């Protein structure tokens, strides 16, 4: 009996002495023998120079103080986060691909996303000093004057949260975030609000946003174009729900074609960063972490446009977000009726 105990003790000792094995981690240099620039963009959405630029921007936040326990380098963390943004999917597969644990992969995505929002958030801004150029770009689309942005909301699928779960069930009956964004005629996001649950109405998100206050105070001279889910205001023009004249029909066509830029921007965003699209399932994080991921991908979306990186094929988000006919704003029309009527009379009649 004593011998048996000795064997067990030796086995336990061997387990304790077992050497830790660290897998090979992915770095830019590991791509040299396998991928060209097109392959890297296909997998990470950014080219080598852009990946290095993002890494340099966030390194100070995600650099470990020591290399103890084979700590992940900023470059590996950024590559892991970019791969998740680009492809979505299961964290276990992502972790295996980059030679880390599932828990490390989750922490990397969170820390890199937070740092991108902190260090690169200036890439999402409303260019008040360039409004004339913005208006000209929008006017070139379908003759709609004085437009400084197109606004809409999109649904981002997430896992059912533990707290306040019913609030995140959207009108399409899945758990989601309702993300509001304003874009320019070049599909670049000028304003993003990513903090509301899926059940929130577009008009409620807009009325609570700081951008609406800017328009209310007259800080921005121009119009936003929104769908029927938004209130009609002098600075936020919506379609005529039941057009009764040819002029109103012409206005609606011009409005739809011009406002379509924001739907295209969402389609391009979800094409480039598939973690936001329902085809890859849903984001398996808490709502707060999901909001950080969404904002980070919107920032990188603008970064990619600024860098002139290739655009992936756009995804049709109409089925995902719906046509809003079950989502029409039912509050008071506001004081925008006169503005819209004068526009139709002077420009489209």
Report what the structure shows:
It is found in: Cytoplasm; Nucleus. Transposase-derived protein that may have nuclease activity. Does not have transposase activity. This is Putative nuclease HARBI1. Belongs to the HARBI1 family. Keywords: Cytoplasm, Hydrolase, Metal-binding, Nuclease, Nucleus. By secondary structure, the chain is α/β, with parallel strands linked by helices. Helix content is 48%, strand content 9%. It has a five-stranded mixed beta sheet. α3 crosses α4, α5 packs across α6 and α10 packs across α13. The model has no long low-confidence stretch (mean pLDDT 88).
What secondary-structure arrangement, pairings included, does this model have?
Elements: H1 2-17, H2 37-44, H3 48-62, H4 74-87, H5 91-98, H6 102-120, H7 131-142, E1 147-157, E2 176-183, E3 189-197, H8 202-207, H9 210-216, E4 223-225, E5 236-237, H10 246-272, H11 287-307, H12 318-321, H13 337-348
Parallel strand pairs: 1-4, 4-5
Antiparallel strand pairs: 1-2, 2-3
Helix pairs in contact: 3-4, 3-6, 4-5, 4-6, 5-6, 6-11, 7-10, 10-13
